[in-house]
Amino acid sequence: MAVQAINKERKATSKRSKAAKAPKQFNFSWEGADKKGQKVKGEMSGESSAIIKAQLRKQGISPIKVAKKAQPLFGGGKGKPVTPSDIALFSRQIATMMKAGVPLVQSFDIIGRGHEKPSVQELLLGVKTDVESGNTMADSLRKHPKYFDDLFCDLVDAGEQSGSLEGMLDRIATYKEKTEALKSKIKKALTYPIAVVLIAVIVTAILLVKVVPSFQEVFQSFGADLPAFTLMIIAMSEFMQKYWWMFLFGTIAFIMVYKRMLLASKKLRDRQDKALLKVPVIGVIMHKAAVARYARTLSTTFAAGVPLVEALDSAAGASGNALYRDAILKIRDDVTTGMQMNLAMLSTGVFPNMVVQMVAIGEESGSIDAMLSKIADIYEQEVDDAVDGLSALLEPMIMAILGVLVGGLIIAMYLPIFQLGGVV
Q1: pLDDT category of residue 280 using cuts at 50, 70 and 90
Q2: What is the pTM of this model?
């Protein structure tokens, strides 16, 4: 209870300090002389030229010239944002350095200065400055909620309080790597169907705008009635030639408006999540991915000693789907009243029986975190296999769809010629 009280107090303190901003870092080029009098030069990030000069003197270099590097006209590399993959990579790097015995501040300095993205450099060196000034790592990270979520910060906080930051950073790194790998698989699964539809639309549009008009000129010289199928294709071609811009801009406008509506409406996002689960093949992958996320998040938080109710809150936010989020929140409420987690999961009706049984075994044996980790491994592998299967399924499907479209248009164009040949 005392540890939980300390946790709550730390969280409250960190939230009050969240508004504080890390000092802005700039890139400087410098020239100087080392202890032997030889000229040396390089680049370094810092808040001002005075700080850069002080850092150089600490390294035994007498600064001669320190100049702030000009920013590129259009932002250059700084325009590249910090991505979740960058955070996953940082997690593994700092975990590795801490295991190797490198001090925390120096680890931030090495990783930050060594990163190719200026945006990541600025982020990590800003965190390093906060840690240097006496803040905990968790509090320093909480000042950047866009990149470090509550789960990440809470786990770091737990590691700092228990004196096992090294091991906790290793768990966080594994969690982030697994999460990003799963996200990549889901994107791959969704990209293939979209690619099929996009290719089909582009090929059809090119044939209607460029190929069909050539045949239409030939048909006008026949002076005979054309088949209904051919007339339909010609009508579609004429429409596309006149109103292709309306079709193009209408599609772009629809996508933009729909994205805005998704951002503004939680109900629409929830409906989309539930609809995706009902799509053939894709829905199965989404179900498995949600179970994998749930198990992986709970496993990581349990191993870190996070209380069950808080762990379920984190798992609900990380599930990635509205149906599973609501189910996990219901589990949280049921567990709060004293119900066993496996029974609470069973009552939701969304978790597979195997998962419920494995959780029940984990609760009975007192190894719930290890059992959840195994569940996550199983379902992540199933997602991987399902995505590979989808890729193998869609390759012939793309050929079939394009064959039907192209073949249908060719048949429509050659039908009048076949009929004319039959009359002759």
Answers
A1: confident
A2: 0.67
